[in-house]
Write a structure and sequence with these properties.
- This protein is mainly α.
- Helix content is 71%, strand content 0%.
- The N terminus and C terminus are likely disordered.
- The protein has one domain.
- The longest helix has 25 residues.
- The chain starts with a helix and ends with a helix.
- It has 24 helices and no strands.
Length: 445
């Protein structure tokens, strides 16, 4: 009798959680906290030096070109013609703000940073869904609160005109849709899955490293549930939806550059920058056109495609000549990705004054997330496989180019979730496996 009463109270709490446990309330808190930081950081974006370069860097330049009627191009200085330097979604968003509020204006800075804060806060909703599905409501509440006060998110949202917070939102949303899709059979749901991944790829192509993981995981889960092979045409619908969304960008690049450039063009420059002899910093500025007049001249003279081809030859030659140096630099980049450590010399700390706090935060986050992932393999092994592979493959491109906490940020919501699950995961009430007949009834419906 006492047990029945206790279970009844638990069910009531699950059905009617307190205000502080409601995702929408945490969303409002997360949004308010980030918006409160904007006044302290917006001034950095309004610095007129180098023709407002700090207002979005390449993103700001491409957005200015779009808003000025010059098309998607000119990522640096002057009007250098078309570009595929980055995916089209975020620069187009910034260009829309420029058209309404003015190019490089204070109003545009406030609007863009506020939108970034909104993207960061909206991440609470798919994160809550993932956490509740895998670990239960207790962990879900802890995860969204951890995200609401997540330190990196404040700077990236309130201080950077870049796609970082939108990329994090789209990546977590794509993972959430993937998890939801394992029990869905409607064609619309599968088409939405393809569209979400397509938009993510057009925002930040590196996010697509998670797409094959998500697709293979779904196939594994469907076969695990006894789904017949005739079900395979639904993933084909998802693939078609993906191609329909991304193909206009591919076609545009083919027409403009005369060759197939699927998402972005600058991989070989990033690879070259990360594998020069200069490893004092993670990212040697002198190897990038906006920070080196000779490189800028070469980019403007050769054009983007030829310039990247030149960097490809130089980068491959450097790796072949110094394979041990490449291996050592790659190892250092892996360590940096998960600990924030590059070096602690006085000269380095002068250009990176937050190096020590960053090491502390990144290392603790990675350690707690590793413990949480290990625990998940015992409580929800199928989902742990998905999380583990995502953590493994997503940063791989940065291991061989140049890493950054900014670039790793799409993984941070999952790292926050796994970290809090270290302390709350044992209380999970989730049943990771649905009865086979339940799924078969959905498929046959």
């Amino acid at each position: 009798m006492v047990s029945d009463q206790r279970e009844g109270r638990v069910d009531a709490a699950e059905a009617n959680p307190p205000l502080w446990a409601q995702p929408w309330f945490v969303f409002l808190v997360a949004l308010g906290l980030r918006l409160a930081v904007v006044p302290f950081l917006v001034g950095d974006r309004l610095d007129p030096a180098r023709d407002h370069w700090r207002f979005g860097w390449e993103t700001g330049r491409i957005a200015r070109s779009l808003a000025s009627g010059h098309g998607f191009g000119s990522p640096f200085f002057g009007w250098t013609g078309p570009t595929a330097w980055m995916g089209p979604v975020y620069p187009a968003l910034v260009a829309g703000v420029f058209k309404i509020c003015g190019i490089y204006s204070a109003a545009s800075a406030w609007v863009i940073l506020s939108l970034n804060c909104l993207f960061a806060a909206l991440t609470c909703f798919p994160l809550h869904f993932i956490a509740r599905t895998v670990f239960g409501r207790k962990t879900a509440t802890a995860a969204v609160w951890a995200w609401a006060i997540f330190p990196y998110s404040f700077d990236f949202a309130a201080g950077q005109v870049w796609n970082t917070t939108l990329s994090a939102l789209l990546f977590v949303l794509a993972v959430a849709v993937t998890i939801a899709l394992e029990r869905k059979v409607e064609l619309r749901s599968w088409a939405i899955w393809g569209v979400v991944w397509a938009i993510a790829g057009l925002t930040e192509p590196a996010l697509l490293a998670g797409l094959p993981v998500a697709g293979l995981w779904l196939c594994y889960r469907l076969r695990q549930r006894g789904t017949p092979w005739s079900f395979a045409w639904r993933p084909a619908v998802a693939a078609l939806a993906f191609l329909v969304v991304v193909s206009p960008w591919f076609i545009r690049n083919e027409r403009v550059f005369g060759r197939f450039i699927p998402f972005r063009s600058n991989f070989w420059l990033a690879f070259y920058q990360g594998n020069t002899w200069d490893t004092f910093d993670v990212y040697p500025d002198w190897a990038n056109p906006p920070h080196n007049e000779a490189e800028m001249d070469d980019y403007a003279r050769l054009g983007e495609v030829a310039y990247m081809a030149e960097k490809k030859q130089l980068a491959i030659a450097a790796v072949r000549e110094h394979p041990a140096r490449f291996a050592w630099a790659t190892l250092r980049r892996i360590v940096f990705t998960w600990t924030g450590y590059w070096n602690l010399s006085a000269a380095y700390r002068r250009i990176e004054p937050f190096a020590v706090p960053n090491i502390a935060i990144a290392t603790l986050l990675s350690a707690f997330a590793a413990f949480g992932l290990a625990r998940a393999f015992s409580s929800a092994p199928s989902f742990a496989v998905l999380f583990g592979w995502l953590l493994l493959v997503f940063p791989a491109v940065y291991y061989i180019t140049h890493p950054s906490m900014l670039y790793r940020h799409p993984l941070d919501p999952l790292l926050a979730l796994l970290s809090v699950s270290t302390f709350t995961g044992l209380g999970s009430t989730h049943k990771s496996e649905a009865p086979r007949n339940e799924v078969e009834m959905e498929i046959n419906a």
